[in-house]
Write a structure and sequence with these properties.
Helix content is 36%, strand content 18%. The protein has 138 residues and is an alpha/beta fold. It binds flavin mononucleotide (FMN). Residues 6-138 form the Flavodoxin-like domain.
């Protein structure tokens, strides 16, 4: 059944999380939105690692590019990201700062080489709670 009350927001640089998000979209019928930074990340792997590490070490929350969808019509927000150093990338912090998550249910999904989703969940749970949302496990 189409799930019109849900929105999938994901961040993906090399396509893995994008394809997971698209599978989830097919399954749920939710709306889907790809998170973009205002300043694009490098396209080569070493460049991505260097940029990501700089953000992580300095707790830089990069500015989002474009406008987030209006959250009003959604009750559930799926948040998808690649696992970076066993954590969500810093841009996920930017998402929680910019989006109005009050009263929403947040469901996290992640892709990684091997780190389990569970390792990243503490951060998402904290971000959800701080922003008035409930973290749910599906
Ligand atoms: C900066 C960086 C850090 C990463 N850290 C981890 C990690 O801690 N554990 C892991 O299993 N994979 C790690 N990976 C691998 C990515 O999580 C994995 O390739 C992911 O599926 C990429 O998603 P994307 O294609 O949507 O960008 C890292 C990749 C990058 C670029």
């Amino acid at each position: 059944m189409a799930d019109e009350g849900s929105l999938i927001i994901y961040f993906s640089l090399t396509g893995n999380t994008k394809s997971a998000a698209e599978k989830l979209q097919k399954k749920t019928g939710a709306a889907i939105y790809q998170l973009q930074p205002e300043k694009p990340y490098p396209t080569d792997y070493n460049g991505i690692v260097a940029a990501g590490e700089k953000e992580k070490d300095n707790q830089i929350h990069p500015k989002l590019g474009g406008n987030l969808p209006d959250f009003n019509q959604y009750s559930k927000i799926y948040v998808g990201y690649p696992t970076w150093w066993s954590q969500p990338p810093m841009i996920i912090h930017s998402l929680f700062e910019q989006g109005n998550f009050t009263g929403k249910e947040v469901v996290a999904f992640s892709t990684s080489a091997s780190t389990p989703l569970a390792d990243t969940v503490d951060v998402i749970q904290k971000l959800a709670k701080e922003n008035g949302a409930t973290f749910v496990v599906e």
